[in-house]
Amino acid sequence: MAWCKYLFVIVSTCAVASGFAAAAPLALLDRNGSYASIEAYAPNIVRVTLSIDKDLALAPPGYGFIAAADATGWKHRTSAAGDEFSSDVMSLEVNAQSWPKPPSQMERYFAPSLPSVSLTVRKPGGTPLLQMSGWEMAPHTVNGEKTFRVGATFNAPADEHYYGLGQNQEGVLDYRGRSIDCKHFYDAPAGETVCVPFLVTNKGYGIVWDNPSDTVVSAGIHDHTTWKSNVGERVSYFVITGATLDELYAGYRRLTGITPLPPKAAFGYIQSKARYETQQQVLDVAAGYHSRGYPLDVMVVDWFYWTRMGQLDIDPTAFPDPKAMNRALHEQGVQSIISVWPRFEKESRYFDFLAAKGWLLKDKDGKPVDGLAERSDRAGALLDSTNPQAREWYWERIRDNIASSGFDWFWLDETEPDLVPDGYFYSIGSGDRYHNVFPLLHTQGVAEGSRRDRANKRNLILARAAYLGSQRYGSLFWSSDINPTWEALRRQIPTGLNFTASGLAYWGNDIGGWQSLPQLHTPERTPLLDPSDARDVVGHYDDYPELITRWYEYATFTPTMRAHGARKSTEVWSYGKQAEAVISKYLRLRYKLMPYIYSLGKQTYDTGAPFMRALFMDFPNDPHVSNIGDEYMFGPAFLVAPVTEQGRESRQVYLPAGRDWYNYWTNERLKGGQTVTVAAPIGTVPLFVAAGSIIPLGKDIQNTSTPQALEEIRVYPGKGSEFALYDDDGVTYDYEKSQGRVTRLRWDDERGQLTAKGAPLAGGSIGELTKVIR
């Protein structure tokens, strides 16, 4: 009886999480008591669910998924070999059931009792693409629940490589030969980990794993890839296939939702600090950018602007008139983001109310969990954002107490959550079972509330963690509280590439690192920039001006560009005159590239494909790029190779085969398929442009509230190409109604001619604007 009641809860939760009732699968197969449900969601997407319980095998997918099953074009055929399901672009075969034979002596003690199921996914011509050789349900007790550790094992060919899985700051791109603990964990040794259980490969398929508990993925170890989740009663996963990587991201988009186009200001420069303590400091910093003529789009108000954690108020002593502050910022074209935490001290005004409602994370006795033993965390209890009523209440308090003062957008900090839920309980069940869902549901409440109550103002959320589907709530993600070191900078590049490879396009990091600067530090080489006029900020960290300058060079070519940190000052003029000259150069370059970057954002909205891309995405036929994690593509044009070694003024760059490449700074044309040594004096990030690229460049502006005319359209000959130049008001949701302006640029390489169709070009005629690089 207890098991039946428990089963009902699990099935019901799956139905609520996905938003769909269980649909009839293509087939429910019985393999000696192991049930295998096969569902199609598109011609290139199939879901496999395995359980020893028929109802669980038939239950809908869990949190993060919004698509309905769609078997259009699929066929099912049964033969002596098993069951075959096929569409025009893929097939899946589930081996026939074989009657169990009497176990051998070894099998009596060491073979699994679970009835076996194996399956093969094939390309249209019959070539094997993915083979599941086994699955697992091992009973154990977690957080008082009798449950299972569930998993599956897949064959791993020697030339298969693995990417995605959210954020892992281990410093490598290809996960082959590694085990990844896919869970949100602020205190991971290399930097915070974030679980988005979408694994993409170089073989034309990806796996989306449907289990939000702590999951270990061991990729390509001893010729197998295994998934093992700590809590579950079934194995559930989706296989997406595609002739290109972008077809995989279109499939992920179909399953988990569209990535909205952020406000245009989100593509500009965001200035933050831990923290601006007063209203006047915020205004003074914004004025400092304006007076110097440096671009700035967003000012951030970080934590402790409140009177107490959980008050959800604004301290009138430090911020006497936040409405006036925001009005002054808006008059300069600057927007604002304010940090809002999901934690409530016992002495805060809402704690008793939330505790009485049961809207806080609880222990086994039903009492609110108050802080953590780790790091002497006394920041209070955690809002239970798995409860829809709690989410709605939280948004209403933000709307009425904070947004009403004119703040534009919200920084939802601690979205892992930092108060680790393992061993505790949400409204939906065990924190161990639902370890990874908090960021999805927490951002959902604010996104949906903002969309409803600020109907035509684009939502934007700065978030520190994500889960499947988090992209649909308009979040910019960042890599948490990283260190201000060269090592941290190096780790950021593959970290960001795997995050965007997980289907979430908008990722960045704290430029310069968040943690305080060390009091003692010895440079490995003579610093390239003079720190003597920045001692008040950098202390004895002599190479820090060089480090942060290299960081800005890199951040110019990331989806979001945001400075932050616990330094005394974080503004671009804080690191000495030499550093300021270089940093301001890259700020201006970022804004010159705004027409290009904003158009990439629209492409992501249309397709789901990220625009900061590891090289394996665009050069699948080049075996040399499978584990290059220190170079990447920024859109279709730019190959970026940041300098991450102190004192270095050159670096080696691999130019992928199949294209010619132009050095952006010198216009030198080079053949692909070779490694070159590139000069990289301070202020020059190694930057190459793929032959055939079209790059629209805008005129100088101080922020994106100013209409930006085109300065020129650069063409790098060598291949015919097209580019969809996009623009709109940058603020409203009218882009969803196709009310933006699209100009389709086409380069005819044989004729040496660039043409434009669609919306008129701002800034001149196509002939006046075109600049062909020779």
Summarize the biggest pleated sheet: 9 strands, antiparallel
Mean pLDDT: 95
Low-confidence stretches: 1-6
Write down how many β-strands occur, each being a DSSP E stretch of 2 or more residues: 43
Integer-rounded radius of gyration? 26 Å
Q: Give the overall form.
A: globular
Report on the structure:
It is a single chain. The protein has 774 residues and is of the alpha+beta class. 22% of the residues lie in helices and 28% in strands. It has a nine-stranded antiparallel β-sheet with strand order 4-5-6-7-8-9-15-14-11, with no helix packed on it. The protein has a nine-stranded parallel β-sheet with strand order 27-26-25-22-19-18-17-29-28. Residues 1-6 have low confidence and may be disordered.
Task: Give a summary of the structure in a few sentences.
The chain is of the alpha+beta class and 774 residues long. 22% of the residues lie in helices and 28% in strands. A nine-stranded antiparallel beta sheet has the order 4-5-6-7-8-9-15-14-11, with no helix packed on it. It has a nine-stranded parallel beta sheet with strand order 27-26-25-22-19-18-17-29-28. Strands 1-2-3-16-13-12-10 form a seven-stranded antiparallel beta sheet.
Quick tags:
nine-stranded antiparallel β-sheet; single chain; 774 residues; alpha+beta; nine-stranded parallel β-sheet; disordered N terminus
